[in-house]
Design a protein that fits this description.
152 residues; alpha+beta; two-stranded antiparallel ribbon; 9 strands; 12% helix
């Protein structure tokens, strides 16, 4: 008997989803803190593309979340959710593992889900990011930003 056995969530292989066109995950501006927490210091400083395994899982309110290095870094756009939703079993902790790339574009970290596009990352479609960007706070106290150079 193991005392500290961890129950790993079921991982669905990418073949279960079938072929799909790559896409940009939604709501990156609101989730920049998750990106910064997941990136290694060299990756963050050099703003290099970081390929890796991206997991798609079930989130609240029926949305599908994009998980990278155990942190939620985006959401699957509703128009791209059908093949992932069909491939995920009933277990709420199950995830689909697919290839993806975290990249820096226009001052934001974003996730490209799918194979690396040959002609570079396309710009995100309009209306993709719907969550508001959280305010900067320290212990719940809002920080006023005066200008672009940081806190006042």
């Amino acid at each position: 008997m193991r005392l500290f056995r961890r129950h790993r969530p079921p991982v669905v292989p990418p073949e279960a989803v079938g072929p799909f066109d790559g896409f940009t995950a939604a709501d990156a501006p609101a989730l920049q803190r998750s990106f910064v927490a997941a990136l290694h210091i060299g990756e963050r400083a050099e703003r290099q593309d970081v390929p890796g395994t991206i997991e798609i899982g079930r989130g609240a309110a029926g949305r599908l979340v994009v998980i990278w290095r155990n942190l939620v870094v985006g959401f699957v756009p509703p128009d791209r959710a059908a093949p992932f939703d069909a491939a995920l079993p009933a277990d709420p902790r199950a995830v689909v593992a697919v290839d993806g790339v975290v990249h820096h574009a226009d001052g934001l970290w974003r996730v490209w889900v799918g194979d690396l596009p040959a002609d570079g990352f396309p710009p995100p479609p309009p209306g993709l990011d719907t969550l508001p960007v959280p305010e900067d706070t320290v212990l719940g106290i809002r920080l006023d930003r005066r200008g672009e150079n940081g806190p006042a």
